[in-house]
Write a structure and sequence with these properties.
Helix content is 82%, strand content 0%. The protein contains 5 helices and no strands.
């Protein structure tokens, strides 16, 4: 594909992903009661997520220089996972749960989001989008799925 067409497609995909993310957050804020959606908690989650995404992105781009996109994505996911668990547990959801149960739940939520993210990454790559745009386009669904998975299952107090 010529560079200009690819750039236009990449920009359009990014804008569509950001539009969907904003709509999903707006829907969550309006439709869910405060028991399930705390806007300040979600803002903290997003801030942690930005830093976590930066870690994930840097590892992905580094690994993608030598490996195909899917294995690079797995390596980045594992690296960012440890950071995400500690910071989300302590500073976002303020969970006091101990033992293996929250770790296993967190890992399962992330495994589901990894598989979903890989599916959409490969789909966007198949459609001809660049690695960067394909990566960014998967983030909104992963972010919302992880927030509700962590809040309602991984870090809930039993």
């Amino acid at each position: 594909m010529p560079f200009r067409i690819q750039t236009l497609l990449d920009a359009t995909c990014y804008e569509a992903a950001m539009f969907l993310f904003k709509k999903a957050v707006d829907f969550a804020a309006r439709r869910l009661n405060s028991e399930y959606f705390d806007s300040w908690e979600f803002i903290r989650f997003c801030c942690v997520g930005l830093v976590n995404t930066l870690v994930d992105f840097c590892v992905f781009m580094l690994a993608a220089q030598w490996l195909p996109p899917s294995p690079s994505r797995v390596i980045a996911w594992v690296t960012a996972g440890v950071f995400s668990y500690v910071v989300n547990k302590r500073h976002v959801f303020c969970s006091r749960s101990k033992g293996a149960k929250p770790i296993l739940r967190f890992a399962l939520v992330n495994l589901i989001s990894l598989l979903g993210g890989l599916f959409f990454l490969e789909l966007f790559l198949f459609w001809g989008f660049g690695k960067l745009v394909a990566y960014v386009a998967t983030l909104p669904a992963i972010a919302l799925g992880n927030y509700f998975g962590y809040k309602l299952w991984s870090f809930r107090e039993d």
